[in-house]
């Protein structure tokens, strides 16, 4: 007896880690709706690891940006020979109409109102939208247990970002950790896991925090794959970080996640998960507002997050 061919889905998502993580909720919904589906993901190079352990992934196509948008031609050459049951294009391009497909879902380009997660859910008529997920396997879980040994508690800190004006002063990260891990704090005796991306700039941002915390901290800046980072974040009692891909990845694991925001858009890019909160610097996004976010405001948000009930 002939078996029906699996549903073929082409999913074109972001070049950035944060946006790619936010799109995992849609993918998880599609995988659950079509358990036999074969999914091809197209994304930017830095976001590739988000999907490395994704169920039902046939393969990932890495879109390296090229002059004259020739990366789209490269993608077309790899997928034009197939007939797709569904093409999802979150890049707002016209690519979905360049391949054979039964159904196409394309996000509008430009700025859209509301949180990014709601924008994504609306594409498939999902309200509430599905929450992001973080995929990692037994190997990543084992490595995370080696990197963060014991029962904890561990506090994840993300003192880096891809833009200087998104970075909360390092001395406040240090003071916040001290307050949370103090004998009468909410996480007495906690140790710190310091995370960040690769490269000299991120290492320089994290260096003051690492130096101050010494042997109470584990240096994981630029050393982890994204599935490994997800497994590490899942072991933390809380993650506190600047607006970054790591913040979104932490929220996707279900770990309590506090996002620190200055001149970015929390109304669109606040962390999305079962236990999340934000602390927003006062003032105009047009100025360097992160120094205006006080230690007291961040500590209050962290303490409330740690005691808040888990969302259904």
UniProtKB/TrEMBL annotation:
GO MF annotations, alphabetized: ADP-heptose-lipopolysaccharide heptosyltransferase activity
The keyword Transferase appears for this protein: yes
Domain of life: Bacteria
Lineage, opening ranks: Bacteria, Pseudomonadati, Pseudomonadota, Alphaproteobacteria, Acetobacterales
CC annotations in GO: cytosol
Pfam families in UniProt: Glyco_transf_9 (PF01075)
One annotated GO biological process: lipopolysaccharide core region biosynthetic process
Species assigned in the record: Siccirubricoccus deserti
Name of this protein: Glycosyltransferase family 9 protein
Swiss-Prot/TrEMBL keywords: Glycosyltransferase, Transferase
């Amino acid at each position: 007896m002939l078996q029906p061919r699996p549903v073929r889905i082409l999913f074109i998502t972001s070049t950035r880690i944060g946006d790619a993580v936010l799109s995992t909720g849609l993918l998880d919904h599609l995988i659950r709706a079509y358990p036999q589906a074969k999914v091809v993901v197209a994304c930017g190079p830095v976001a590739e690891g988000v999907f490395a352990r994704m169920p039902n992934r046939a393969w990932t196509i890495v879109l390296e940006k090229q002059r004259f948008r020739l990366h789209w031609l490269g993608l077309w050459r790899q997928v034009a020979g197939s007939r797709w049951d569904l093409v999802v294009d979150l890049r707002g391009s016209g690519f979905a109409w360049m391949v054979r497909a039964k159904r196409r879902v394309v996000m509008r380009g430009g700025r859209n109102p509301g949180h990014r997660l709601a924008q994504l859910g609306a594409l498939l008529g999902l309200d509430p939208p599905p929450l992001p997920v973080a995929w990692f396997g037994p190997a990543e879980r084992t490595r995370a247990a080696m990197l963060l040994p014991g029962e904890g508690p561990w506090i994840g800190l993300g003192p880096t970002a891809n833009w200087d004006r998104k970075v909360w002063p390092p001395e406040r990260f240090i003071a916040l950790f001290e307050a949370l891990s103090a004998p009468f704090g909410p996480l007495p005796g906690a140790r710190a896991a310091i995370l960040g991306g690769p490269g000299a700039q991120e290492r320089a941002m994290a260096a003051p925090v690492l130096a101050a915390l010494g042997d109470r901290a584990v240096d994981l800046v630029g050393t982890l794959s994204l599935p490994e980072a997800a497994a590490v974040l899942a072991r933390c009692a809380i993650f506190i970080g600047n607006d970054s891909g790591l913040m979104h990845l932490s929220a996707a694991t279900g770990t309590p996640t506090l996002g620190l925001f200055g001149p970015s858009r929390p109304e669109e890019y606040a962390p999305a998960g079962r236990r999340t909160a934000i602390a927003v610097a006062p003032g105009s996004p047009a100025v360097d507002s992160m120094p205006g976010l006080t230690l007291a405001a961040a500590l209050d948000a962290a303490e409330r997050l740690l005691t808040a009930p888990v969302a259904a």
